Amino acid sequence: MIESSLKQLAAALAAKQISAVELATEFLNRAEQYNGALNAFITLDKQKTLAEALAADQARANGPVGPLAGIPVAHKDIFCQEGWRTTCGSKMLGNFVSPYSAHVIEQCRAAGLVTLGRTNMDEFAMGSSNENSYFGAVKNPWDGAAVPGGSSGGSATAVAARLAPIATGTDTGGSIRQPASFCGITGIKPTYGVVSRFGMIAYASSLDQGGPMGKSAEDCALLLNVMAGFDARDATSLAREREDYARDLDRPLAGLRIGLPKEYFAEGLAQDVAAAIDAAIGEYKKLGATVVEISLPNTKLAIPSYYVIAPAEASSNLSRFDGVRYGHRAAQFEGLNGMYEQSRAEGFGWEVKRRILTGTYVLSHGYYDAYYLQAQKIRRLIANDFQAAFEQCDVIAGPVAPTTAWNLGEKSDDPVAMYLADIYTLGVNLAGLPAMSVPVGFGSTGRPVGLQLIGNYFSEARLLNAAHQFQLATDWHTRTPEL
Amino acid sequence: MKWEVVIGLEVHTQLTTQSKIFSGASTAFGAEPNTQTAVVDIALPGALPVMNKAAVEKAIQFGLAIGAKVNRRSVFARKNYFYPDLPKGYQISQFELPVVEGGAITINVDGVDKVINLTRAHLEEDAGKSVHEGLHDGTGIDLNRAGTPLLEIVSEPEMRSAAEAVAYAKALYSLVTWIGICDGNMQEGSFRCDVNVSVRPQGQAEFGTRREIKNLNSFKFIEQAIAAEVRYQIELIEDGGKVQQATVLFNPDTGETRAMRSKEDAHDYRYFPDPDLPPLVIGEDWIERVRSALPELPATMQTRFVGVYGIPAYDAVTLTASKALAAYYEATVAAGADAKLASNWIMGDISATLNREEKDISASPVSSEALAGLIKRVMDSTINNKTAKDVLRKMWDEGLAADAIIERDGLKQETDTGAIEAIVDAVLAANPKAIEEYRSGKEKALNALVGQVMKGSGGKANPAMALELLKKKVG
């Protein structure tokens, strides 16, 4: 059962071969069994989960239900969920029980999906290794010494270790794709505006985007069908017709033009990753795709641009965590400023503080033009690069990250080294494009490698098609770690 | 040395929308603390702002009313600072690209018109309030007001006296209430003024260093605060000091301004475009729709009043202080009153009585038709002006028509020459000195006797007729 696709689970539930309660219990048991070692979940609440599962079973007994009704889903602890502790990986929200639900949560609940638990993450989604969680680092299920990637490391680990059949994540600079790559699962970051940000705790508003993380492209397509949709409560949500992201899964790939950005295969890309990517490209050629070399000349500038814009927005977004209305408030302080300073000093971790300081600095009087405006100009150049590239190809392919998962603690003292590892994922967020990670093999140390597929705006169905066809021809996505 | 005062105003007008500028919560005043707060207003994690179109529409109305440029594209920005009544840690405002740019308002001080240019008007959200009442220890926060839509209207520093500043504030007040974008309730903070004041030697081109007086919510305070601030700055400079840029508060009890913070500790607000809100785009069709629905504006109406009714510009300005007053005036004239007499009566006795009783024109016990009824009796000489004032008083108190009171109290003016002649004879007999003076060329000597004739007739004599008779008898 734990290896079943969403389609298989849905069929079993529809045929009453299994109940939602039984299904939830099975995954809960696994989660409870392995969470001590993996630390994938911040919150597991058996009672709540089983209550939701029971409700799903009753709904099914009473009439027709949605295709995913009764299937458990693990939610990244960044989506506010009514009645659930929503921590965002931070001490600041360590005791915050949300009085309302995010649009993503509402839609999942309306579809009858059962909340399996709340997954671990880098604090406020800031990080590429999941070591920045107040609730402790998540372990990569393939190798207990390795990081799972971040910031959606808990969701990636939960799916990879089969503690959950599917999970939600968010991606601001690679936070779905990179942990999916490090953990050997599939994840997609949709076009900015496809998934509502309402109730999704903001890191960098102009970059944040929610998306599914699953065992396969098909599973991701099915959950994206639930997560996506216009929401009037998010002014950046796009008012588009609902679409079926699974509609093109079976389309043959003959004639698909794949662009390989030379900058993604240049110095810095590890040999073992390059080999796995090359092999995957070879597979695509066999499936009928053609390959063309393209250029994204401003790739390197994505790093400084991102690390100005994201912290700038974050410094402002995180101002609401002031200890006044909710969240952590220091027990001892003097005066109003003392309350702010002490509460925030205690409530935030180092990486969050670093980005707040960076963001505050780049927005300061006299620096704004040199940093923030400049970064916005680069952002436009990067978006233009992609548009030029899409005149030559349908999909861009390359690595998600320059290396496989690194060791826990390896880059903890060197934030810049950690930032540089985001080089292939940041541009996509700056441009607002959809992109995904597809497992394509393993590196020299046995850690998974992910292939990144980048499409033009609203090409999610095409990306999922390209990934699905690859997964029909290969079995990388079915490999599971030994726990 | 002769000093010139330079004043510019920033006025925060609270817009009359049902719900807040970025949330669906109500904007009604006076509810229990924190009961009118959506997730956005408390700034819960994950909450996002959504623009309220009604607030934008009111900004467009204002822009059109002052002949300004309504920007087809404007941008919301975050103004970052920490304060307990500012739940997000930033205020959503407009910085580089406001919704309204330019425009002008004409003020009139001592009969002289002056055009005051506006810099801009931008949309923003109000903050909450700190609450101390009823709390033994510490400070409470009430976020009901947080997110109330404001239009901040910024003038050029073109006013040169407290009187001009007050005239500007009043003209602006009249306009925003006139077009209905603000309820004008100054007690509840619907119209709050920040006043920038500096002084410079007469003839100097550069501005002096300014200080900003914050949060004045009455015209009287604006006047007093400017006077105090000007006095302070001039004394300081004359004593060899230098004005330091600062934000100050006016204390109405002491009549003094006191520095709140200096330039050194001014905030760096770190403005940047709000990534949660796309640029505000206003289409031509929207602007045209708003334009066609705009009421006739005070300035247009004033010109019409002067042209159509032949009243002086001063009267036209006074009568258009509010839409209700202007309507009352027009209805009075439409009911048959002479246009100038109607203006005199409304600006005079009617306004005075309303002021005394702290009533609005809409609550006047004497309707426009009733006032016209009274004025017609003056016009046809049924009663004289003095009697008419008494009749109005009775109309006001008793709610009766002018004719009914004149009839009941027998106030009809005496036009019977015989009856008045007898009184004239008696008055002349008692005042031989006045007769002498008149005969020796002092024309006005007889005027004094008219009063005595009036008195003798119990106020019912027609004064013009009495004067004529006096002249005839003496001459």
Q: Can you offer a commentary on this structure?
A:
The complex is a heterodimer of chains A (about 475) and B (about 475). In chain A, helix 8 (about 270-285) links the parallel strand 7 (about 255-260) and strand 8. Chain A has a domain at about 5-250: Amidase signature (AS) enzymes (Alpha-Beta Complex), CATH 3.90.1300. Helices cover about 40% and strands about 10% of the residues of chain A. In chain A, strands 4-6-5-10-11-9-7-8 form an 8-stranded mixed sheet. A 3-stranded mixed sheet of chain A has the order 1-3-2, with helices on both faces. Chain A has 15 helices and 11 strands. With about 475 residues, chain B is of the alpha+beta class. Chain B folds into 3 domains: about 5-290, no CATH class; about 295-410, no CATH class; about 415-475, Orthogonal Bundle (Arc Repressor Mutant, subunit A), CATH 1.10.10.410. Chain B is about 40% helix and about 20% strand. Chain B has 16 helices and 17 strands. The mean pLDDT of chain B is about 90. The interface between A and B is large, with 45 and 28 residues.
